[in-house]
């Protein structure tokens, strides 16, 4: 199989996680801002789309070069092997972006790249400059940064955060791949208790269950490249069958999701059922201030409201204070709270062990981490 240069793109701040996922899958990586480079065949493309929990997309690098004029952009794009990737009837929209570059007009950049590809394909397929674009979708992007052009082909289609299980969502939902990143950053071990005290539509507990069970996050969705005529038939199903055989359905899990809003608990149950992990998660309507437990060495991960609107800020900060009071009674538990409120620690009542800057969409947030002091469980006599 032909080997491609590939990119796994991701949200700013979690590149190292994507790199770790890829290395765990056996790939050599180069981590950059917002993306990780690696090499692989079409089998690897399908495999990484299926298994990456924290990435957004897997892209083929078609070409990289410097361009300082539209003529140069046209000629260098024309010289790339588009006919090896795009069939005659390919539908190939071209998205674009440009930063700090001489070629700063994105519509013009897109138009020039599209024209060059059409010319190359029309010449190859003897079409007199007209292509039907009635076939499978091949999403292309031209990205220019400091005059360096990167041309990519998206193999994923809809972003990888769209797992396919979220039937309903509440206000300001957390993307599935960001929820997976929060769980992975917490270094939670599935033999310990796990709690999301403000679970909303259930995304964080669901991602925790998928991770614990080693269920491939892309198992219940399709990818753009599965419709390409040069992808071997049956390869995708082969990889899905392999992934299914690697899932662990026998382990006992202790995962709970709470929310003060009973309607959100109903939504969370529907989503968990669609993901196939409803039996792994205990969902219950419960306010943060009413949470108590005798369990030890657990992990709490919370994505509470941020109070971005001034009218909500006081209410949210009362919630932060309640969290601090309730969780102070759980010294063996580690607590992880994501919020954009940089004064969070003042209301929680304690400085974090560690803070990590993450981007929830375009919003800068901090992941406040409070590491518990692990208690050795009491030994039971036989």
UniProtKB/TrEMBL annotation:
<dbReference type="InterPro" id="IPR029063">
    <property type="entry name" value="SAM-dependent_MTases_sf"/>
</dbReference>
<dbReference type="InterPro" id="IPR000241">
    <property type="entry name" value="RlmKL-like_Mtase"/>
</dbReference>
<keyword id="KW-0808">Transferase</keyword>
<dbReference type="GO" id="GO:0032259">
    <property type="term" value="P:methylation"/>
</dbReference>
<keyword id="KW-0694">RNA-binding</keyword>
<dbReference type="Pfam" id="PF02926">
    <property type="entry name" value="THUMP"/>
</dbReference>
<dbReference type="Pfam" id="PF22020">
    <property type="entry name" value="RlmL_1st"/>
</dbReference>
<dbReference type="InterPro" id="IPR054170">
    <property type="entry name" value="RlmL_1st"/>
</dbReference>
<dbReference type="InterPro" id="IPR053943">
    <property type="entry name" value="RlmKL-like_Mtase_CS"/>
</dbReference>
<protein>
    <submittedName>
        <fullName>Class I SAM-dependent RNA methyltransferase</fullName>
    </submittedName>
</protein>
<dbReference type="InterPro" id="IPR002052">
    <property type="entry name" value="DNA_methylase_N6_adenine_CS"/>
</dbReference>
<keyword id="KW-0489">Methyltransferase</keyword>
<dbReference type="Pfam" id="PF01170">
    <property type="entry name" value="UPF0020"/>
</dbReference>
<dbReference type="GO" id="GO:0008168">
    <property type="term" value="F:methyltransferase activity"/>
</dbReference>
<dbReference type="InterPro" id="IPR004114">
    <property type="entry name" value="THUMP_dom"/>
</dbReference>
<feature type="domain" description="THUMP">
    <location>
        <begin position="44"/>
        <end position="155"/>
    </location>
</feature>
């Amino acid at each position: 199989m032909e080997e491609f240069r590939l990119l796994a793109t991701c949200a700013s701040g979690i590149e190292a996680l994507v790199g770790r996922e890829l290395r765990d899958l056996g790939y050599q990586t180069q981590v950059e801002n917002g993306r990780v480079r690696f090499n692989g065949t079409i089998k690897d493309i399908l495999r990484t789309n299926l298994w990456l929990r924290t990435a957004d997309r897997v892209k083929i690098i078609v070409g990289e070069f410097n361009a300082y004029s539209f003529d140069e952009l046209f000629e260098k794009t024309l010289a790339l092997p588009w006919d090896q990737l795009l069939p005659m009837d390919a539908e190939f929209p071209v998205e674009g972006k440009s930063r700090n570059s001489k070629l700063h007009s994105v519509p013009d950049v897109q138009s020039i790249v599209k024209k060059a590809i059409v010319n190359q394909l029309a010449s190859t397929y003897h079409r007199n400059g007209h292509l039907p674009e009635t076939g499978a979708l091949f999403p292309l992007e031209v990205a220019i940064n400091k005059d360096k052009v990167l041309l990519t082909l998206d193999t994923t289609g809809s972003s990888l955060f769209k797992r396919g299980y979220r039937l309903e969502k509440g206000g300001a939902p957390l993307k599935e791949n960001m929820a997976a990143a929060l769980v992975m950053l917490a270094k939670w071990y599935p033999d310990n208790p796990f709690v999301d005290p403000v679970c909303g539509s259930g995304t964080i507990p669901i991602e925790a269950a998928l991770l614990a069970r080693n269920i491939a996050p892309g198992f219940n969705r399709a990818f753009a490249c599965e419709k390409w005529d040069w992808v071997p038939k049956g390869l995708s199903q082969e990889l899905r069958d392999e992934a299914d055989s690697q899932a662990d359905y026998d382990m006992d899990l202790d995962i709970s999701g709470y929310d003060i809003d009973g309607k959100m608990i109903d939504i969370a149950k529907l989503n968990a059922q669609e993901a196939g992990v409803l039996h792994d998660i205990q969902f219950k309507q419960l306010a943060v201030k009413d949470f108590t437990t005798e369990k030890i060495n657990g992990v709490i991960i919370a994505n509470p409201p941020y109070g971005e609107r001034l009218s909500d800020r006081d209410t949210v900060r009362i919630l932060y204070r309640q969290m601090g009071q309730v969780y102070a009674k759980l010294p063996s538990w580690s607590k992880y709270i994501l919020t954009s409120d940089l004064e969070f620690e003042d209301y929680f009542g304690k400085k974090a062990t560690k803070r990590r800057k993450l981007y929830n969409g375009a919003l800068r947030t901090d992941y406040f981490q409070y590491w518990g002091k692990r208690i050795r469980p009491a030994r039971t006599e036989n």
